[in-house]
């Protein structure tokens, strides 16, 4: 049979705390009964009822010491004094056990404060035992304290016999308590790290959902606006120019397919068709795609003039941000700027920042919204809508600024500035 693993008994006692109390209570009860039997013979005058009362109190203290370590410790010291005064002294075992419990279950400061109290009580018990011995009343027969002519020396010897076990119990309890507190600290730290991990996962998940939502808004707002504009144009020319109307509807279908592919890429659910490139792995648009974007809007009927000055950055994240800002600004112009004869989009790259300005010349009174809201409501929507919120969030990542509102005289102006490092070029 293989030997038990190291610390088997300790682990068993920690898992079954009642077993420790049963062992301590049994040992204490046996010693108390044995000493009570010895003390029952003359010339001792130890009342049996008093010894049994002390035994009952000691068993209660041992049973409750884990739940109430400090009150049971004080009760054990009181029982010890009474036992030294007229008992058998067996309650010293209970005092030692409760001193250990205070050190193991309470803080180090409380443990040493308890030991200081136990030291005072032990010194008092030593005085009682010396006086008891001088009166010819030993603790049990045939034990008799060695009484000399020097009472101070007798008290010192009795105090040493009492305080040494108290000190050993206090040291063992403090050591066990420090280990327990260290383990509890590790467990709490692990639980805290687990909570922080879950919180970080939730934050990352929320940020990812917000990113996908923002991307989907940009894609859907642009594509649907273009498709609506193209469909209206095709309907208006279907009778007089059927060939041109058919070409426009082909662009509508192409825009729809491109939108679906981009949505699948965003959601990560694009199945790879045989012999085709998976949209889930298709590259994100960047600053080089703004010309194609402007062409889409021109086909949709928005008179866009795009100007790019400077050398675009090679950073794909920055390029995607610029593309989305231009896309959102032109989408708003397509949806709201009725009667606009000129829409300019200017992107200026420098060594420190990139500036995006989108300006249309539609009259302020001619700006519309899908719901036909009032001018004040339309301006509020344009200022606080989700598209502008998305632009602000993108610009904030680069420590930039964004302005949106009526231009001087007529038209609507959206201006964004993003800071970037030249080494990203």
Describe the structure.
The radius of gyration is 44 Å and the shape is rod-shaped. The protein is an alpha+beta fold and 425 residues long. The model is unreliable at 1-6, 269-281 and 369-384 (pLDDT under 50). The longest helix is centred in the middle third of the chain and has 87 residues, at 151-237. A hairpin with a 3-residue loop joins β2 (343-349) and β3 (353-360). The two termini are 73 Å apart. It has twelve helices and five strands. It has a five-stranded mixed beta sheet with strand order 1-2-3-5-4, with helices on one face. It has helices at residues 8-15, 17-39, 48-64, 69-86, 92-105, 108-134, 151-237, 242-267, 290-299, 316-336, 375-384, 386-397, and strands at 304-309, 343-349, 353-360, 401-406, 412-419.
Distinctive features:
single chain; 425 residues; alpha+beta; five-stranded mixed sheet; 5 strands; disordered N terminus
* Count of individual beta strands: 5
N-to-C span:
73 Å
Order of helices and strands: HHHHHHHHHEHEEHHEE
Outline, from the CA principal axes? rod-shaped
Low-confidence stretches: 1-6, 269-281, 369-384
The neighbouring-strand order within the major sheet is 1-2-3-5-4
The Cα radius of gyration reads 44 Å
Helical fraction equals: 55-70%
Tally of helical segments: 12
Q: Structural class of the secondary structure composition? A: alpha+beta
User: How much β-strand is present in the residues?
Assistant: 5-15%
Biggest sheet details: 5 strands, mixed
Give the overall average pLDDT. 77
């Amino acid at each position: 049979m293989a030997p038990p693993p190291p610390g088997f008994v300790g682990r068993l006692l920690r898992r079954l705390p009642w077993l420790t109390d049963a062992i301590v209570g049994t040992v204490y009860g046996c010693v108390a009964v044995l000493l009570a039997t010895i003390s029952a013979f003359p010339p001792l005058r130890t009342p049996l009822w008093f010894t049994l009362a002390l035994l009952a109190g000691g068993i209660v203290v041992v049973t409750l010491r884990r739940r109430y370590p400090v009150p049971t410790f004080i009760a054990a010291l009181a029982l010890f004094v009474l036992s030294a005064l007229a008992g058998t002294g067996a309650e010293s075992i209970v005092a030692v056990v409760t001193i250990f419990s205070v050190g193991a279950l309470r803080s180090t400061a409380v443990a040493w404060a308890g030991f200081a109290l136990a030291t005072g009580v032990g010194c008092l018990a030593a005085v009682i035992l010396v006086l008891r011995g001088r009166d010819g009343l030993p603790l049990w027969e045939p034990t008799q304290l060695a009484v000399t002519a020097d009472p101070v020396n007798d008290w010192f010897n009795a105090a040493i016999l009492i305080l040494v076990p108290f000190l050993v119990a206090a040291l063992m309890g403090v050591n066990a308590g420090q280990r327990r507190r260290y383990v509890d600290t590790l467990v709490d730290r692990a639980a805290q790290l687990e909570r922080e991990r879950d919180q970080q996962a939730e934050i990352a998940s929320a940020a990812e959902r917000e990113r996908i939502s923002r991307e989907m808004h940009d894609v859907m707002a642009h594509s649907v606006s273009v498709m609506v504009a193209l469909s209206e144009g095709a309907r208006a020319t279907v009778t007089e120019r059927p060939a041109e109307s058919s070409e426009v509807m082909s662009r509508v279908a192409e825009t729809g397919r491109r939108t679906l592919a981009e949505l699948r890429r965003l959601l990560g659910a694009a199945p790879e068709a045989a012999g085709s490139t998976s949209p889930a792995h298709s590259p994100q648009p960047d600053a080089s795609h703004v010309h194609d974007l402007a062409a889409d809007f021109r086909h949709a009927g928005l008179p866009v003039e795009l100007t790019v000055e400077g050398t675009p950055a090679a950073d794909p994240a920055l390029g995607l941000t610029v593309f989305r800002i231009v896309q959102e600004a032109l989408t708003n112009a397509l949806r709201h700027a009725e009667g606009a004869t000129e829409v300019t989009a200017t992107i200026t790259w420098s060594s420190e920042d990139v500036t995006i300005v989108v300006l249309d010349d539609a009259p302020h009174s001619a700006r519309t919204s899908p719901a036909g809201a009032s001018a004040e409501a339309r301006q509020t929507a344009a200022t606080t809508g989700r598209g502008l919120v998305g632009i602000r969030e993108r610009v904030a990542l680069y420590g930039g600024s964004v302005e949106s509102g009526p231009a001087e005289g007529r038209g609507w102006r959206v201006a964004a500035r993003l800071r970037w490092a030249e080494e990203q070029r």
